Amino acid sequence: MTDEPLAVFSNAFSGDGPLDTATSRAILAAVGRGDMGETFEIGATSRIVAFGKHDTTSPSFADAVQLAVDHGFQPTVRIAGGRAAVFHEMTLRFGWTRAVDDPAATMYDGFRQMSTMVTDTLATFGVHGVVGEIPGEYCPGSYSVHIAGRKVMGVGQRLIRNAAHVGGVVVVANSETINDVLIPIYRLLDLPLNPSVTGSVADALLITVQDFAEAFVSRVAQGRPTVEITLHDTVREEALRFRPDHDPSPSTTTSGHADTCAPNGNDQDSRS
Predict the structure, then answer these.
(1) What is the spatial distance between Cα 69 and Cα 181, in angstroms, rounded to a whole number?
(2) Among the ranges given (80-84, 232-236, 239-243), the one the predictor scored with the smallest mean pLDDT
(3) Measuring CA to CA, which residue among 210, 204, 199, 166 is closest to residue 28?
(4) Residue with more model confidence, 84 or 254
(5) Does residue 262 sit in helix, strand or coil?
(6) What confidence score (pLDDT) does residue 2 get?
(7) Which of 83, 88, 98 is closest to 51 using CA atoms?
(8) Rounded distance, CA 231 to CA 9, Å?
(9) What residues does 166 pair with on adjacent strands?
(10) Average pLDDT of every residue of the chain
(11) Residue 153: which of 66, 225, 82 has the closest Cα?
């Protein structure tokens, strides 16, 4: 583990879902080039349905996007794989980006480390989190985190040459908000979903989003100091260029499909 401070981009999310996703992608590109070091993005978000790339190939994708809009959620195509997930005011969106010599060979290390960081954070509050997939969970993955059989964290990963981004969501409260929009969306996309296994940290512990975020950052830092950062103008400009790739809103969606991330070196997507 490095002794370098962890660069933290707190309150990182602007309320523009496609732009926020594009910003994570621009940070990943900058880390891959060596222009930035290890960076941890974290913050609450507005209401967003984050679709995976597989969702965009469904013949019902345009209808699912419209349904998200009708429910008051901004649709976004995220940079990692998997299936539709939800962000709202009582969720924490996170993204951990770091330089990696051989991203494909160490892909599962990133998943394991992140799921462990989440369970360790829960443990600091006396809550027992379990890693693994539960049948019927939304956006299923082997490295989801559950409390008492209900999913509270999902994670995905994007790999490029020399860097990896592990990102996802921790649901702090209001899991019913997730079900309200995902039940009809999953029905449209012909995906299985058991609403009873959608959960939140509040199932076991009432805590503010900010308090959980602070404990989470501490776990990611692993004893290192942290430093708050702002993004360089070149990263922001690159994010603006990437933004259209992540915006499947009705005005930009045609023929039931949306543009997905353009190829970038040796990009690979994974979800677990």
Answers:
(1) 10
(2) 80-84
(3) 166
(4) 84
(5) coil
(6) 66
(7) 83
(8) 8
(9) 96, 157
(10) 91
(11) 82
Closest Cα to residue 34, out of 121, 98, 87, 109?
98
What DSSP element (H or E) covers 117?
Answer: helix 107-124
Instruction: Give the pTM.
Output: 0.90
Q: Find where tokens 């599962």 sit.
A: 108
User: What domains can you pick out in the chain, each with its CATH number?
Assistant: 6-262 (3.30.930.10)
What secondary structure, in 3-state letters, does 58-76 show?
Answer: CCCHHHHHHHHHHCCCEEE
Q: Which two tokens stand for residue 210?
A: 């900010």
Q: How far apart are CA 23 and CA 13, in angstroms?
A: 9
The β-bridge relationship of strands 226-228 and 6-10 is: parallel
Q: Which amino acid is at 175?
A: S
Q: pLDDT tens-digit profile of 56-111?
A: 999 999 999 999 999 999 999 999 889 999 999 999 999 999 999 988 888 899 99
CA 98 from centre of chain: 15
Asked if residues 29 and 232 have their Cβ atoms less than 8 Å apart, the reply is: no
First-residue to last-residue Cα distance in the chain: 24
